[in-house]
Amino acid sequence: MSWFRGKKDPGNGYGYEDRAALKGVGGYEPADPADATPRSVTSAPRSTGTSSPDAGGLPPAPPPRPGLQPSLSGARRGRKSGTAGAITAGVVAVVAVFGGVVMSVGAKDSSEKAQSESERSSEAPYSPPPVIEVPAAVPGWQPVVGRDGSYAYDVPPEWTPEPGVTHGWESGPGISLSTSAFLDPGYCGGDDPSRRAGSGLTIVEDTSVRAAAEETVRVVAMSGFRTDAGELPAVAPDPSVPVELSFDGQAVEAMVAVATVWVAEHAEPCLASSVLVGAVAVPTQGGDSIVLVAYADEDKSDADELTRVLTSLRTVAEEDRTTVPGPTA
């Protein structure tokens, strides 16, 4: 059965609600989440032989929220967020800069202006920004690459990486996820924000990795899979499992949490009867946790596949990054 229907915002062409208008998700979004530069991840040795990345290595995400304690207030399920508001702001900034140039040139003869523009057009044709590619850690899967390729995670081949998209839910208690990927986006009757599976990164502040992973799973379940009438889902968590991830070439202790979520009966057509929600939390020296979330209709994935998505989170050495021309369309 299909699942999750986000609320489309008719006010923009992207089908997503303006990120700046969301409540309970921090109110921050980089102009391009995939371009928000993560500072270098550094690792400090532990007596166990593992290490924690420096807090500076966090991927682009909303400001951390202590403990992600959910509020079960019966608020309606929130809307999917996107980059439309930030893109608009970027366009306004560009227009403002070029507006000054146009005003300066406007004092010249119009023929000279036309000739100058023609010369500029022939001398500097538009070229799309380059794209950073990195190798997949899971054979046959595709990477979702953050920023300049300094970190990545992998998703199955049928998923669609959208590293420049931030999505999430505004209520119950709300969470947003950056460096995203989706399965079957827009499948539900042309409702663009709908998808059968998704993933993305966030940050949790001042808590253990076990608590960060488990609370994030619960927050996603309560935020994303309540009905429009406010009926809460039932959540059955599996025991959390410690894992090791590769950050800066060192093993970092992390924690994986996965839960089965049963949506209330008589839910909307775009909500499945059951879904899987998983999260992996990675500690940092500053006490925060980097958290990768993955969720999917139980008919479309299983716990093993979600765990493979989660445990593929890693940093990428500079020599393993390749710059290629960006798409032209």
TrEMBL record:
Residues 135-316 form the DUF8017 domain. Keywords: Membrane, Transmembrane, Transmembrane helix. The keyword Membrane applies. The keyword Ubl conjugation does not apply. InterPro entries: DUF8017. Residues 24-81, 107-130 are annotated as: Disordered. The chain crosses the membrane at residues 86-107. This is DUF8017 domain-containing protein.
